[in-house]
Records
---
Amino acid sequence: MKPVWILARREMAATFDSPIAYIAGTLFLVATGLLFFFGLGGTDDFFAGREATVRPLFDYAPWVLAVILPAVTMRLLAEEKRQGTLELLVTLPVTDLQIVLGKLLGAVGFLVVALAMTLVLPALVLSIGHPDIGAIVGGYVGLLLIGTTFLALGVMASTWTQNQIVAFIVGLMLCMFFWTATDALLRLVFDQPPPALALLSFQSQFADFARGVIDLRSVLYFLSVTTLAVLASTYALRSRHWQ
Amino acid sequence: MTSAAMIQVRDLVKTYGDKNALNGVSFDARAGEILGLLGPNGAGKSTTMKILTTYLSATSGSVTVDGMDAAANPLAVRAMLGYLPESTPLYSDMAVYDYLLWCGEMRGLARADVRKRMAEVARVVGLENVMGQVIGTLSKGYKQRVGLAQAMLHNPKILILDEPTSGLDPNQIIEIRNLIRSLGQNHTLILSSHNLAEVRQICDRVVIIHQGAVVADGTLDELEGRVASRHHLIVGVQTTPQQDAEALRTLLAQTPGAVRVSFSHSSQAPVPTAFFDVEADTDIRTALFERIRGADLTLLELRRKSLDLEGIFQSLTQSV
């Protein structure tokens, strides 16, 4: 695991060396802050609601994450391919899987920093009322899990191209598809989606966390999607051998 | 044939789609030797190196490194190798120091050991003054040194350098060549080049690749001997206003042993000189000299014409 950690450290340093991290981070904080306080079109105004809850953060943050996280991951492998540094990286005595995990872990580092900066919102709510602490903890665990899944999808998109813009657009489409379309597609096919299939929806899996319920099945679900994306990325890296 | 083969390449075939990049390449690199892979652009040198370093897999054939099958033990083989890919790809956003430290740690060296090695390697390749500089701001020559430094950081048994001097200016080329020459004393070294003079200067042995196949394998002298059955000489004679080149040519052609003499070109500076190409079956340099002196002429230049890469290729590929 050591090379994974060494690679992750470099990736995180490189991310915070680039303007992307600051643009994406600022965008995330401004968007979640605005949505938290004013909702969409003032529908659920925090001040008008007169309720000490962090709930709006967990309603809106996944949408924002689905947009900004592919911008963080787009560089990870596409840039290595374009610059030719991939050739040096994959001829180091490390496996392709370790490379993908290192890249992902570096991006998770950014996610953790970004989420940590939103802690000011629950702190504010705590200072004026008595929100449900369990829901806050659950919500953050959920955001970390769904964010990691988005990052894994973004890394996968980045292994498919040497063009960062393409990696971003494909990553964005993947994240948006999994976040919104799984639910919509199920409802398109079924009036009442069978429970087994309903489990495939990101939104329904995430909903429990925001209520403060850390369901092991939901944790496993996001970890499974992440694992599949990591394996697909590793496969894409390996595909150089038979191209 | 002093020591055992460190690298054995056998019947490598690599196809990209329906295009054959390699058609059965085989050669050995012995421990402690500097082997040059020589060939024109697109001959298959880089593809061979990418397979040697386990970046790519061969469609068929095998690479054995220090007794290990490279395809079956890629990590162990990579640990033994230092690799400088073509055009030296580096992380341009990192400082030299941070980059080398990172490379060493990725190779599993302890931080203290990496630092010690970095100091040694920086001294050898001449990077000491730029260790704090960001790689993207370095000149091409310095970037090449950083590439070499990362390749030799873990003191590998084998160094594989793909066109290590391409894109450098003449001074940098000389420096990097000297550096490689000195590295060859402690490593098995394979380098690729399309520059015959470079290979002559650096390499102990040459494998010539042409259109994905080995067309020759040996020392350059052997290869040139095989290719050049005739002796080619270049002769420069000082001319006077009374003589024309044709008269001189006839004079030279009467030299015993000369098979063919042709006028090449003339030059006015620093003294008027006519140059001739002389072909002979034996070494007739002494006879030529005597003939020119006997005619009371001034010999300004007399040298053997070394074959250029194109000439060697033509001869070798025609004979294969």
---
Amino acid sequence: MLQKARKFCTVLFSRKIVLVSALVILFFAICAIASPLMAPCDPYEQDLSRRLEGVSSEHWLGTDQLGRDLYSRIVYGSRVAFMVGILAVIAAAVMGCAIGLVSGYFGGWVDQVLMRLMEAQMSIPPLILALALVAVFGRSIPMLIFVLGVSAIPNFARMMRGQVLSVREMDYVAASRIRGNSNTATMVRHILPNCISPIIVIMTQSIGGSILAEASMSFLGAGIVPPTASWGAMVNDGYSYIYDAPLFALAPGVAIILLVLAFNIFGDGLRDALDPRLRGAL
Amino acid sequence: MGRFILKRLWQTLIILLLVSVVAFMLIQFIPGDPVYVMLGENISKEYHDTVYESMGLNQPLTTQYFNWLGNMLRGDMGYSYHFRKNVNQLIASRLPVTLTLGIISAVVSVVLGVFFGAVTAVKRGTATDTTLTVLANIGLATPSFWIAVLLVYIFSVKLGWLPAVGFTLPWVNFQKSIRQMILPVICMSMGGVASYTRQMRSSMLEVIHQDYVRTARSKGLPENKVIWRYAVKNSLIPILTMASTTLRGCIGGSAIIETMFNIVGMGQIMVIAINYCDYQLLQSSLFFMAGITCLCNLIVDIAYAYADPRIRLE
Amino acid sequence: MKAISRILALVLVLAMALAIVPATAEEAPQRGGTVTIAFPASLTNIGFPVAGGVQPLWASKPAIEMLARYDENGQIKGWLAKEILVDSDNLEVTLKLQEGVKYHDGTPFNAQAVCDVWQIYIDNGSASAYFGNVDSFEAAGEYEVKVKLNEWRTSTVGNLCIECGVMISPTEFKRVGLEGIYGSVVGTGPFKMSRYDIAEGIEYVRNEDYWIEGQPYLDGINILFFTEESTGENIFNTGDAQVIFGVSANLARRLERNGFEKICNNACISPTMTGIYFASGNQDDPISKLEVRQAFSYALDKQALCDTFASGVGFVSEQLAIPGSKEYNPDVKGYPYDPEKAKAKLQEAGYGPGECTITLYYQPVNEDMFVAVKGMLEKVGFNVVGDTRTGNVSRNMVGTTDPWTCCAFFWAPTTVETWHLFFGNPPIVYAINTIDMEAAGIFDCYNRCLTSKTAEEQKAAMMELQVLCTDEYCLYTPMFDTPALINFSDGTVRDHGMAQTWVCEWTPEAMWLAQ
């Protein structure tokens, strides 16, 4: 087992870029967990007389529109990014995969009902759905996770179902059933592992996506409640000052791009490593 | 195939019914007195009550629902109090804008994405692959409005090459339309191109190792033919499932881009409808957009069934 | 020889100077062209007088004129009513109207039209606020309106000719009704509305039959709506609009730096006061305690807020008036920023640090201001909860009998003529039930501001009211005044009259575009 894991890691990190993105994710994760240690200032401490300042030894990236330390706010912003990004995707993936697996495996009326429901949701534009849900439930972090998670369910369900459909007729699935394995066992042991790689690609892609979705929601005024630091809201704030203090909009934007990029590349690497056929080729 | 299409049509009807319930219920839960939110706080109590009644808000929910659905089926989508216009009129003037932008962006996404994806997969491990993959990843990681600000700042404000705002339909003034569309289409399709590239790449890589590609290769077919005839064609199947998502994203997700470029399209009116609690506008436009998306899904599914005959037998 | 050449040189210089002078002197208006004005809102109603508000009124100005305008000294001068004769002793006001003025729908503008328009105001909720002291009015001739009063109020002429002086076409009102009039702009103005789309904007074209000979100079005026300020900034920067209306202090700074022409005047009547009002229908709520309200007021660093949110154009005031105006009482102590005093007051009210929780309502666009105020309050020991429900919802709550408490931002003009927003019945800007306003003598005092016959009496009443509401009961915390509107132009638009006399006033008929 240990050897297997070591081999997996060797394959996973054989490409330097995957290692680098893993390190980037790790760095942001440390920022999120140990924010007070990583941030030089209190992210909520405002000083209106020192707003929109440039780079200085005291404020590494300058200050925002209320004179708060931008760097510290970016560090604290990683908390929201991780929390919303990962939890929303996990929620969506668990619900979506379960739905897709069941739907694809059983087919028939179960499939009909689940897929119609998914399609009904999918046919509503996701951002509009999320905005309407926020209008109903109000703004808060758990609400945002829920709303973004719900919006992403059909992606997973449909992808999963598509994958299940294409492997369902494979010999090894039939063999498992003939051997008398239960449906659950067949699904979990034989179908799920063969469907997992595109799901992982989509998951890592979706973490970035939900970080971006959070930013979009903030942009339209339905994101995180201020004064909580969130990159999306910061880009939105900085947008108003793009001519005055370009760093204000750019820096949180770069943080978003970096983290999302890291997740995406890491996901790609993970996918390559998970794919048994590719592993042989490497 | 005919039976399959009929079945899908029937399913679409059920979906639309579900959507109508969701669209109807969703707005009922938005807090606030819709009349005051819609018309502002300065209106008199009498006017408030008149509008409240004329919107049918004093009737039970089920009556309201069936009245609305009945009117919808007769082709009357209701009246928007915020815009002071019939919803039919509103949608008729906004839909072409959103569809034009959405379809062009979706086509750009698919064509460029599939092409880049195929190239990266074929040239796997080379500098081309690395460059394109990294670019695709960056594209996917960049918020569309962030790119919009940057592009407008560079191309409109600094260089003055392209207009920063507005939208003209291509058949009204073609040249103006193209100039106005370049920036929004770039912003809207950036994510799509990137995500197709990624999906196509992983899908291609999977296909390339499949037996029939190996067989084709071993039969001595030219590599070009193997790639485009076998690998690309078969890699498109998972891509198909994404196509409707893309179109949906381009239509509904355009709200931000529409706001930034001051384009009056469907995304913008739906956001306004939520903000101003415009019951009939939100219900009807959600339902209408869902209808269009369902139509797209239907087409995609038929194409899917055509590409992968196993699906038809379900 | 030398002398002659000197004289010659002098003559030459003089001649050159003379040649230059006419070129720089007053330019004659040029004809033609269309001015586009970027406008920071999607107006849902224009044209309907009762639903007023600065933005709709401003945007309908090219088409709809008023009975009177303000002059440079803040005095009301006749416009559609060319003469306004006031007889305060006999409680009578006579208006002599411009002759030969026609509405865009072809109907004549006359005394009967004025009476019909006033009746529309009265029928639609303006009766008590503006016609409370009006006994009757009638057309005394084709172009003469006589108004009988039952009591003199200083605001009478303003009410009749400005607040309710927006002369829409009564025929149009009859035709389209209450609902339709919101989107139908038919007046006597120099431009006719040709298109109105809530999401896009308003287009006006030249009114060929305008009553002033030779005007207007422009072919048309377009008002282009935008919702994101950055979008508006781009529209303006790329030259797609010549004027941008009502920009934020933040954008104003930037446009000024880029060399655009700032159109804004601090002496312009009715700047907007930004502040926070207290509302509580519940005696157990902290906000019902005077000390809490005072602690709240002491905790706000108003200068810092002003510098941040109105920098360059705002000024701090501790009362409902601009320093130097007739409403300003220099004896009001107010609550200058003092965190220690704030803590002490909070202690006095019986709340330790973090024990006093208040809800602050704000609109999403003012998120920054909310965060800044929250930060200041929490520093002295308040616990602040934010809520973004719209003003409409909160107002409904205030209007009901349910106990409801809040602090909320307000934006309101500060002239005595507009104080009914605060002290009218019902008040619009804050909740009536925080204290018993009747018992506190506030209603009585406000009434004296309105009805006093001499300027001295009115002054005394106003001074008393300022002390009562600020030092005595702390009904609200004024923060800073801003000219309600800062406009910018690219320098090509002349004689626009914007932000010169009154916030809603401009002169589309005289406006012209320098090519």
---
Amino acid sequence: MEATVSQAPTTQSDSQRDLLVVKHLKKYFPVRGGLLKRVVAQVKAVDDISFTIRKGETFGLVGESGCGKTTAGRTILRLIEPTAGQVFFEGKDIAKAKAGEMKRLRRDMQIIFQDPYSSLDPRMVIGESIAEGLVAHGIGTAREREQTVLRVLRDVGLHPEHARRYPHEFSGGQRQRIGIARALALRPKFIVCDEPVSALDVSIQSQVLNILRSLQRQYGLTYMFVAHNLSVVEHISDRVGVMYLGKMMELADREEMYSNPLHPYTKALMSAIPIPDPNLKRERIILKGDVPSPLRPPPGCVFHTRCPIAQKGLCDKEIPAFRNVGQTREHWIACHLVGDKEGN
Amino acid sequence: MATYSATAEELLTTKQESQLHVIWRRFRRHKMAVLGLVIILSLILMGAFSSYLTPYERDEPTADINLSPSGLHWLGTDELGRDMFTRIAFAARISLTVGFAVTFLTTLIGMTIGSVSGYFGGWVDNLAMRLVDFMLTIPSLPLLLVMSKILSSGGFIIQFPESVLRFFGWIMAVSDIKSIQQVLYIILILALLGWTSEARLIRGVILSLREQTFTEASRALGVSHTRIITRHMIPNALAPLIVASTLSVGGVIVVEAALSFLGFGIQPPIPTWGNLLQNAQNDLWLYPWKALYPGLFIFLTSLSFNFLGDGLRDALDPRLKI
């Protein structure tokens, strides 16, 4: 029943080009029940996904809520222990790193959270929150740490005097910038942005996105951008992966993905992006039914229960391989029925 | 630009001092809390200067027995003719010492066990909470009686360090080593039985705190568990902890009183508010002030600590506007 992924979605793992290589990553959450609290079932939040993230790029990961994209982000940083699989960061397997090694790795990989309210300790002035990573790693003297705090505050467009204030004195957008500053203080190479703008006002969203972009240039950052908003992902990403029910469905360059989506699920998603023009009509692909429970994912292709083109006997039996169907550029999909004919 | 960053640096370096200042300013606005603090401080002062406040000896019997309050004997005298106010003032030393010491210990034990249990969860949590359950199933009063009997009968002797004995003797103005030891036993017994509620309280708060994203953020930064517990978990759990601790001071004084009342606590002639109260019950209807005044002091202490706790909780919470 193992999905037949022959290789990670790059022909070879190229250490010059790739910062992060994820191979067959799985995270199952046990469901305990009964009198003895035995494991009665497993939620397959992330079920065998593989992809690479290249140095300096923004990798967008989209999918509807509950598809496992946030879990994927946290498992990659090992904030959640993976059930199986490997995550190579600059060639080192994070999933196997020991505590001391993991701590060193944390300097290079940071995370920005979705909820700007609960992600800051209400009892700590933000200067202290931002300096926390520096203190934990014993970087610099108290004075140097202060300088760093002031610098990152300026970088995210906040004032130095804000360092002494408490989180409740800030707006949502400002707090999100504080969260970014905290992640930046350690000068990481890689940041997982876990829906960093979905809790914000639309007007603030672009502000924060622009800050993220300019910081990427300034600090040479690599992002993994987890989101459910396709327009935001299109705006910021270089490559995009689409997840559904713990599986990667499609992965391609941004232009390729948005101009030539192949997977029926991606097509349906794309048709749901609102167009800001009332006269323009587009054919919407409305999916039937709901997302099945990740407790009992459908056999075969997990999408076949809702797929408009699913074939009986094939899609509900066999798990589609995640394969590259692009000719000039990479274009990975997990579908039995599309790709071969249409592949350009 | 240069002046701008200079002021910013100045702001950063003066942080520590001003934060305490801010807390004090916020606390001051809480009128009842300030009143509570004043009462507690006066009680402490009353205890500290108890030997200078009245011309009477604490344990010296006189012929003036059971006098009602007057200019000479502010709170009357007891059945041996000892001045009630003198005894109550001295008792403040012992009762407050027991109250503070026990609360300090229970808070320390409860905070440690509760925060470790709540933060790590799993088998650590299970073990700690079963221990708490076990402690709570023991009827505490009989156990207190048995333990104090064993300890005070000399069947089991804990060797306290000389310095501890001298320190407590000095605070309580008691010179007799055996009596000091007895007070220390009572403190230990009450502390060992009293930490469970605090542990449960802290555990509950921390269970919800550790699910907050800022805990995850700290882990992502590489902050150690110890530091997360001490810098994030406990400061955020401080509000209920302070309230519980301040409530506990009053409660401990009452429990000590109950023990003394049953004859297992600190024994006369050393006065505590508890044994003064007990002493008064024989002729309660004839000389009610003998019970009224010690009771009043217990009540006053308990109430003041509650107000103080309220004020501190509000002052320590930066989110609250007062």
---
Amino acid sequence: MAYSQKVMDHFTNPRNVGEIEDASGVGEVGNMKCGDIMKIFLKIEDDIITDVKFNTFGCGAAIATSSMATELIKGKHVEEAMKLSNQAVVEALDGLPPVKMHCSVLAEEAVRSAIQDYYNKIGREMPEEYKLKCEGCCEDCSKK
Amino acid sequence: MRVYADNAATTQVSRSALEAMLPCFTEYYGNPSSMHQSGQDAARLLINARETMAKYLGASPNEITFTSGGSEADNQAIISAALRGARKGKKHIISTKFEHHAVLHAVEKLGKEGFEITLLDVHEDGIVRLPKLEAAIRPDTALVTVMYANNEIGTIQPISEIGALCREKGVIFHTDAVQAAGHLEIDVTKQNIDMLTLSAHKFHGPKGIGLLYCRKAIPLSTLIEGGAQERGKRAGTENIPAIVGMAAAFREACENMAVNMPRVRALRDRLIDGVLARIPEVILNGDREKRLPGNANFSVTGIEGESLLLLLDNAGICASSGSACTSGSLDPSHVLLAIGLPHETAHGSLRLTLSEYNTQEEIDYIIEALPPIVEKLRMMSPVWKKK
């Protein structure tokens, strides 16, 4: 198993690490049993993601996908951001080893979870197809 | 600086082992089964190597069977003892929860084929308790297999006591001594060991070679059918270069053990003390004293093992971890779970294993390099922040 240069770059120099105190939306997915937890903080103004930060406990791929996902949604409209797919994250990272694909799914779910939180706060319904499907167990994602 | 601190995974081949091996490729390349001079030259090397291995194990040469490595020897030992037991109506096997998979999976397979398996607890300190073993032994127990020292946390088991107990009860005792051989004193006769597994590449010998010691009174079954090599117990042309390299490495390790191991132990203690002093919320896994001279295994709260290994590798340090991401499955190491670590702590484990080739400068480099790496990962960990 070898990581691409892009993965190693985002792992060793992760972008957007941190927290946003007055975040418009916060999402956390994964669990300790599986060994991956991603937490994403969004600052949203007029439905535009003006700032994004993350905290991740996990392997190199988990940290790199978190970093890349935050880069891909920064400055985007929330409706566009919620469409971010794990495949787009993987492609932007020049691929992931097969056993690490679930990390990219976790990144996708973390972004949606944060947007869901924002929608909940402002009382807006999340489109059905982007609602969180993660049961919180990594085995579900590995099967995707 | 580059520091190799993964000697429990494998070791550098020693100069003397390499030099012993080289003529086997170019001069003594005959097949030991051949009648001609070239073959007989190779046969002599084979005899000498077997005598060397036997001598340093306290065994007889005809009790040594060369195998492709530790896994094969473990499998052959367990299957032989199981088949012998089954012939006598004994279908109960005792092992421990934290054996190497070569033992655990072989035993579990027998469990699916009608054997009853008891896996002993290894407690928080990673050591089997003799009274629990004694209580587990039944009239139909065919085999007790307990590793000499654990490959992840390095804890040393009470092998002499287990040997004496099993001999008294008339139960075959096998020990996987892959991590112990060349690092700890072994005498199969004095320690009442019936079967023992070792592997050359853990003590500066080549990969792909190991052996099974089996006491004369116990019949071995074959795993590989074919020619009459190894007294008919292991078919296949003998790997003379590897066997010769193993014998040279084992002689060197045993002859220098009294000098090397106290030095390695001092390096290990310097490492353990340094890491525990410099990094908050780190625990040492396994008993502090009853552990292999070169083994240090830590759990680093709040971070995951694979990311730690990657950053250490970037800093030139080769280490290992029991996290799920490095085990290739979704569960962290069965060894760490067996000593009662919760999943989150098991995911953040770090194993550093030293040999006599490591230096104090290298240990000090690890102690300097590790804290900022741990700090960096903790700073981005949602688990650490929650504390």
